[in-house]
Amino acid sequence: MNGIVISIDPVLLQLGHFELRWYSLFVVLAFIAATVVGLKRCKKIGMSADQVYTLVMVVALGGILGARLFHVLDHLGYYAQNPGAILRFDGLAIWGGLVGGGVATLVYARLAKLPFLPLADAVVPALLVAQIVGRFACIVNGDAYGGPTTLPWGFIYVNPGAMIPDYLKGIPTHPYVVYEQIWNGMILITALALGRRLKTPGALFLIYVTAYGAGRLLLTAVRQETVLFWGLQEAQVVALALLAVSVPLLVRLLNKERTLRLAGKPGA
Question: What is the pLDDT of residues 176-203, one digit of tens each?
Fold first, then answer.
């Protein structure tokens, strides 16, 4: 049977009742990476280092709470039978993290009297780096699994502690997480290139939301998660909802960008 065997125990270290999971480690590393990238980007719009650190803490809180809420809702059957597992924070949904983190950023921008759209543009590379690093947690945890595949790069989960359903353990499954990491890497490269050219505040952020939403809509097709309606999973429904908002706004901003360039103006 061809595939890549994932046999790592999701629990990295256990001392009595204390449990350190690989998932937690990678989430922390993701926030550290985002902070390093965000410091340089946010200073360009006039933020101090202290403001960046505060923003990271606020976004971390909002993002983790939102991510956990979406994850629990997406696996409601499991958590209804295991309510104590809700507080373990061993599974997070990226969409929930983006929504929760986005709301937290908006609130902080208003309280700190910072321009939200330039701030949103500035944090795009940091968000993407955090997503790429954080997804390594899902590789070990097995909570973002794909359906069965015959491709030679399928993931085969064999550790009893992996969150992938028992009926998928021991057989090759699509490495959905890797697909998303590659997609996010492509968006990151594009964002870094466009960030030097786009002058209209908010345009880069909307490009990120649109590109990521399109990727989730397509890539989630290989996953096996709860279907809400019309054969669409939760992640796809959220992606469609955001695309319905982001695409018209993006078209409007890009038209504004084009008009400004044709007029020879520096931007809004």
Answer: 999 999 999 999 999 998 877 887 888 8
Element (H, E) at 9: none
Q: What is the pLDDT of residues 34-91, one digit of tens each?
A: 888 888 888 888 888 888 888 888 888 888 888 888 777 766 777 777 777 777 666 6
Rounded Cα gap, residues 109 and 114, in angstroms: 5
User: What residue type is assigned to position 208 of the chain?
Assistant: Y
Which pTM was predicted?
A: 0.83
**DSSP codes joined into one string, 28-88:** HHHHHHHHHHHHHHHHTTT--HHHHHHHHHHHHHHHHHHHHHHHHHHTHHHHHH-GGGGGG
Distance CA 80, CA 142 (A): 20
Distance CA 176, CA 196 (A): 31
Report how far residue 82's alpha carbon sits from residue 88's, in angstroms, rounded to the nearest whole number.
11
**CB 219, CB 211: distance < 8 Å:** no
Angstrom CA distances, 104 to 16, 27, 108, 133, stand at: 35, 18, 6, 21
Within a 10 A sphere around the Cβ of 196, how many other Cβ atoms?
6
Strands 232-233 and 227-229, sheet pairing: antiparallel
Residues ≥6 apart with Cβ < 8 Å to 52: 35, 38, 39, 42, 43
146-170, pLDDT tens digit by residue?
Answer: 999 999 999 999 999 888 888 999 9
Structure token digits, residue 10 = 């999701």
Question: Given this model, what pLDDT does residue 42 score?
Answer: 84
Q: How many CB atoms lie within 10 A of CB 19?
A: 14
Tokens of 255: 């038209």
